[in-house]
Amino acid sequence: MDIFAKFENRLGPIGDYAEKSPGYFAFPKLEGEIGNRMKFRGQEKIIWSLNNYLGLANHPEVRKADADAAAEYGMASPMGARMMSGNSDNHDLLEKQLAEFVGKEDAMLVNYGYQGVVSVIDALCGRHDVIVYDAESHACIIDGMRLAPSQRFVYKHNNIEDLAKQLQRATAIVQKTGGGILVITEGVFGMSGNQGKIREIAVLKEKFEFRLLVDDAHGFGTMGKTGAGIGDEQNCIDDIDIYFSTFAKSMASIGGFFAADKKILTFLRYNMRSQIFAKSLPMALVMGNLKRLELLKTKPELREKLWHNVKRLQNGFKERGFDCGTTNTPVTPVFLQGGLYDAVQVTYDLRENYNIFCSVVVYPVIPKGQIELRIIPTAVHTDADIDETLAAFSAVREKLEKKLYPQEMPQVTEATI
How would DSSP label each residue in 140-175? Predict the structure, then answer.
C-alpha cells in the first residue's frame, strides 16, 4: 500500500476541521501588532489565546533590542552547532544570568522548548531506567518518553498518593535493572492552571530514590515574588533537580533553557543530540532574550499588572457562577457543559458576535460533555477587555443552557474568511 493512501480518508480528529472550517478553528490568522486586540478575518477581536503574559512581545525596549541585534548580527550568526562553531560570549552570558535568576548553579540554552524537553528525556533515560510522570503532562514530555527506551508509569494528576504507588513499582524494577528513576511534572499545568505539587513530590525523596524534572513553561516569569517561577513561588528550587522553561511564553521569544547543577548540564551539553546536531540559537535572539530577562527582573510592575488582570478576570467569572476549576495561576479555564457542536457554536458566537477570540478544548483532551474555553490574561489587557468578556460569556452561557445553538458545524468557508 502507498503510505500516503491513508491520508485520503483519515486526517485525524483535528484534521477533520481542514474541510469543515478551513482557517477558522485550526490555523486561524491573527493580524496586526501582537496585543490585547488584534484582527481576525478583518474584524478587531479581544485576544485571549496568546501566552504573552508580561506583554513583552511589543514592549518598545524589546522591539528596539530585537531590531538592533538583527541589524548588527543578522539571523545567521553564529553559524554551526554550539559545540562546533556556534558558541559566543553572549550565549554564555545569557546562561549565566538565567542560572542566577532561578537559583541554580548552571543553565543551558536550547533552540526550542518542545525540542529541548523531548531530547533531554532521551539523553537522560536509558532502557534500564524508569520514568514516572503526571497524567496531565504536556505533549513534549509524552513525545520525549516515546523516544526514550525506558519503562514508564503515569500517576493521577497531582495525586501524591498515586505517585508513591508508581514510585514503588518503579523502585522494584530498577532494583533488578540497576537503573534510576526520573519523575516528571509541570510547574504550572497549561490546561488546568494548577500548580504542580513540587514540595510534596520532593518529600517522597525521603522514601524513594529519584530525580525530579520540572517543566515550568507557564510559571517562569509569572510565578513567585521575583517571577523566577515555581521554585520561587513554592520556595522549592533546591528540590528540583532539572528546571526547564521556554522563552515562548512570558519572554515572548524563541528558545528555552535548562537549569541544574553544573555536572548535570555538562553531561547534557555533550549528549543532547538535538543540540549537538542543530544550529546554535541565533545571536539576534540571544541578545533579544537578554533584554527580555532584564525587563523581567527590573520591571515588577509588568507582573503586578498581569496579576491585577488575572484576579479581576477570575473573580469576575466566579462571581457570575462560572466554573474555573482549581486554577491558582494566570491560566484561566472556563468550563461549560455541552458536546462538540455546542463547543464550536459557542466559539463561533464569541468570535463573530461578541468579538472575543479564545481557544476551545473538547474531548479527548477533557471528558465528554465538557467544553473548556481557555483564557490567557496578559499585562496588556484592560479592565474594558475584561468587562466585555465577562458579559459575552454570560450571554453565550444563557444561549447554551436554553439550547439555542444548532447541533451542526458553523458554515465557515474559504469565501467568508
Answer: HHHHHHHHS--EEEEE-TT-HHHHHHHHHHHHHHHH
Task: State how beta strands 356-357 and 332-337 pair.
Answer: unpaired
Mean pLDDT lowest among 24-38, 179-193, 303-317:
24-38
Domain ranges, ordered by start, for the chain: 5-53+300-416, 60-298
At residue 25, the pLDDT reads 84
Instruction: Give the dihedral sign, CA 274/280/282/288.
Output: positive
Q: Which of these ranges, 2-6, 34-38, 51-55, 298-302, has the smallest mean pLDDT?
A: 2-6
| Residue 136 grid cell | 496531565
- Specify the CATH number of the domain 5-53+300-416: 3.90.1150.10
Report how far residue 313's alpha carbon sits from residue 71's, in angstroms, rounded to the nearest whole number: 40
Give me the mean pLDDT over the 108-117 stretch.
94
If phi > 0 it is left, if psi is from -120 to 50 it is alpha, else beta; for residue 41 that is: left
pLDDT value, residue 308? 98
Q: Which fold has domain 60-298?
A: Aspartate Aminotransferase; domain 2 (3.40.640)
Residue matched to cell numbers 530525580 = 211
C-alpha angle 239/242/243, rounded to 5°? 90
User: Do the Cβ atoms of 243 and 231 come closer than 8 Å?
Assistant: yes
CA angle 194, 244, 85 (to 5 degrees): 160
* Residue 231 CB coordination number (10 Å): 25
Closest by alpha carbon to 82, among 297, 313, 252, 279?
279
How do residues 74-83 score in pLDDT, each as one tens digit? 999 999 999 9
Over residues 348-358, the pLDDT tens digits come to 999 999 999 99
CA distance linking residue 120 with residue 282, whole number of Å? 21
The contacts of residue 347 (CB under 8 Å, 6+ apart) are 25, 358, 360, 373
The predicted model scores a pTM of 0.95
Has residue 11 got a pLDDT over 70?
no
